Amino acid sequence: MAAPIVRFNFLHVYHRLALFKHRPHETFVTLCQFYSSESAARQKPEQNITVLGNTYKTDSWTNVRPKILEKVGKNLHLKKGHPLNLLKTRIEKHFYENYFNRWRNPLFSVYDNISPVVTLEQNFDSLLVPEDHISRSLSDSYYINTKYMLRAHTSAHEHDLIKSGLDAFLIFGDVYRRDHVDASHYPVFHQVEGARLFTEHQLFSKVRDPTNLKLFEEGRREPTKQESHTLEAAKLMEFELKSTLENLAADLFGKGLETKWVETYFPFTHPSWELEVKFQGEWLEVLGCGILEQQILKSESIVKQCVTLIYRHKIFISYFKIDCVWQVALAMCYTAGAVDSIGWAFGLGLERLAMTLYDIPDIRLFWSEDSGFLSQFEGSDHLKPIKYKEGAHPVSKFSPCINDLSFWIPENFSENDFHDLVRNVCGEYVEQVKLIDDFKHPKTKRQSQCYRIVYRHMEKSFTKEEVNVMHEKVAKLATEELGVEIR
Ligand code: FA5
Ligand code: MG
Asked: Which residue numbers delimit the Aminoacyl-transfer RNA synthetases class-II family profile domain (predicted)?
């Protein structure tokens, strides 16, 4: 593990609730305490967290905070007239209209309401994420306890859906990460996951003479392919995947968008890529994708394998008139875990795409309840080109207040913990947290960091006093919880 440090406990949450008069306004998200506040002050209370109607016991891994739990169940992607919902509709429509199965029905099935509470196994193990991968650390993900977490990506459902026998699907959902704070990063955002599996016949169906083409071989892992894939299968899959995503981008943006593919790494795909688009003069990464590790498909639905095999051997089976149970058993023995498909998958950040598409300058705006923002999209036809008008909503009309905070950091300090703390204290009022200075004292060897915090209200101008109150709370809690020493 990447040295996870448990610094957070629920007494802190309790204190914070009192300190900042935080009132979670979603009835289904409640933070319950078993003990009275009096005894809570003396001993660490045993806690329950209720998320979406299910109750979980907290433990030493719990690091999810009330400000984050408030967002669970908001489902912005399902909210009519919300820009994320408009974008979702456009993506669904694109897949519905362009991809069909052999019965001319839409090829991709869509899931948009799977609970974001997943097991660590779903989020990591099922995707071959190594034990020591940074994304597992307490400073990167939101844990409910040692068994459950808020999903860090929609890929958490890949394995289950493939196992259930699906071979083409889209998953829309909210995802949660302890990430940096700036205009394009937010601890809760939305992704759409897409996956498609191909049999040998399907993949090579467009090739003029597919006789000698195979999906699998026992070869070597190379930058361009996995050990069990043939080069021709890997190359065709890369083409299929990239053209699917380029067609989606062209449908959403028209032809003018500047894009580039960048090679990358994911534990569950190889090879892997990211797609970047030009936004406000800078390259912005909007999605990650790749060819699914064959090991993930190995546990593909046994039922599906049997059906395929029974279908292949139907003459033999119908000749002997073996009853159904024996047909299934026979097919299982016959295949001994063989998998006949190869797959690709992608995960796309909906906010980043919507920002590019509608010219929305700051990711916090998606959470705005302000009518000035939402009314620009409400009642819109998802096909009508909309451009967010900055003047109509005062996101950057009100000037920012910039305050710096310098402190000595303890040995186990994590930057993400500080970003998370600031987000928790200031919510939507913080636009950016940036490390602007980092040095080690030559004699004492102590390390000092300075963060620039940009405060900006979206609906009014902040007074210096209001900002100072928040800034002092940040300093106080950073001292108490993260063990820093303010300079
Ligand atoms: C993933 O989440 C992978 N699960 C994607 C994937 C799926 C790869 C299937 C291969 C196969 P990544 O961490 O890069 O990858 O996130 C995907 C996208 O989510 C990013 O490209 C970006 O658009 C968006 N994203 C990531 N972090 C944030 C954030 N903090 N705020 C807003 N959007 C974000
Ligand atoms: Mg990425």
From this structure: 172-385
